[in-house]
Specification:
The structure is a single chain. The protein is an all-alpha fold. The chain has 4 helices and no strands. The protein has helices at residues 17-28, 35-51, 56-71, 77-96. α1 (17-28) runs parallel beside α3 (56-71). It is globular. The N and C termini lie far apart (49 Å).
Length: 104
């Protein structure tokens, strides 16, 4: 790489691969929305992003994009809302520094 050249196709170092994979798995039907898996994976991934220096505003933007893509799936409203609630709660808990908590 030549110093000073910008590469727009490479994500910042803080982007966690799992935050990309989880929504893709949901959209394709591989993931059904298992509570513990969705919450724990998201909570851990956001925590890792924060450790790597992700700005909270960027995580919030990423979360909004993910939730919009989930909403565009052909899944039932209940399934989409269930996934979105777990996902958003995990993001909020990680950002706020709260201990992990699975909703029931």
């Amino acid at each position: 790489m030549i110093p000073g050249d910008s590469t727009t196709d490479i994500d910042p170092a803080w982007v966690d691969v799992f935050m990309k994979s989880l929504p893709a798995m949901y959209r394709t039907g591989v993931l059904t929305g298992n509570e513990e898996f969705v919450y724990a994976s998201t909570f851990f991934s956001v925590g890792e992003e924060l450790k790597r220096g992700a700005p909270v505003a960027a995580i919030r933007r990423q979360t909004s994009q993910i939730l919009r893509s989930v909403d565009e799936t052909d899944r039932s409203a209940y399934e989409k809302e269930h996934f979105a609630a777990l996902f958003a709660r995990a993001v909020d808990d990680a950002i706020e520094g709260r201990p992990p908590c699975i909703l029931h």
